[in-house]
Hints:
Shape: elongated
Strand order of the largest sheet: 3-2-1-4-5-6-7
Structural class: alpha/beta
Amino acid sequence: MGLQLAERPLKVLLIGAANTITGGGERHIADLMGGLVERGIEVGLCAPAGGDMSALAETLGVRLFNADVRRRAPKPDLEAVLRAFEPDIVHAHGSRAALFARQADELGAKRSVVTLHGLQGAHGFGSFAKLALERSVLDNTAHFITVCKANREQAAELEILDSEKTTVIYNGVLLEELATIEHYRNTRHLSNLIGVDPEFPILLHIGRICAEKDQPTLLNAFAWLRAKEPNAQLAMIATGHENAVQKLRKLVIKLDLDDAIHFLDTHRDPLPLYASCDAFVLPSVWEGLPYTVIEAMAAGALVVASEVDGIPEAVIDGITGMLCQPKEPEKLADILEDALNTTQTQLKQLRENARAGIKQRFMLDDMIKNTISVYERVAGRSA
């Protein structure tokens, strides 16, 4: 019997609609690039030119193709990319990237994988046109990935995907070292950073300024909270266009909160902030499975978040964190007051439960391995 030649490494083309690592979908692509390269997979990235996504690709030795899938007609560019790279798997992230990849790839039914990082159209954002865009990827897609069970169920009901060829793969993070977490917590890193009394309770929010993150509800809730907790502070990393930032700052002034709200550098390392805040708050109207929530849990923060989409799959109310209903600022204020008055014994248990939950279901290594397993099945290489 002759020697059997080993199969060549899989070639995977990742397609994204953004060139900066700001949102959850872009963060997911960035993590995938690193994890796939580490495991010997040949990776290509197709994304708009410029930005830190392209810089990361070059650092990792990922073959970079610039095609702007944000515009209306990128089909010729994508067809050229597919001819040049000849991938085994075309992995598009988000409905826009998936739509254009489907139009350009005549082999899509055999090699296309689509990850949906949330269902904007399912929540009435972007009108019927957005829902139609999300539905358009159903045909000629070999396999779907959703980042939470809720999205798989919603998308199947709305005929956006076929649940029989869909895999739920949770976003994954690294589990932070306990010694590092304790250091930032004990030194009250966030208090020192914003220059307030270490005894003052501090809430933390990180997110893009957009309708789904609903920062106005958070600010109004914080105004209600200050009536009962006058020393409470709110630190925010809020990214977005300058107009959105200015609009948010105007609301802060209108609510007379400018002495208690602290806008932080958007490029700051969030780990010390998560570890040293008294609670992390995310009042979203809709989500997929937000990285900020699982990052905060991994870093020992008490999480208060909306009971929407994938969030309850990570935050179990009273067990690993606290849940609230969206767009209810007064009730959110009550829950935040409860969070700030949690006993040390209760807080210790919540943190331990959250850490165990991250270790069980939301680890980066599992995300990478499970995604590769999907690739192998689609490419016909699974055992």
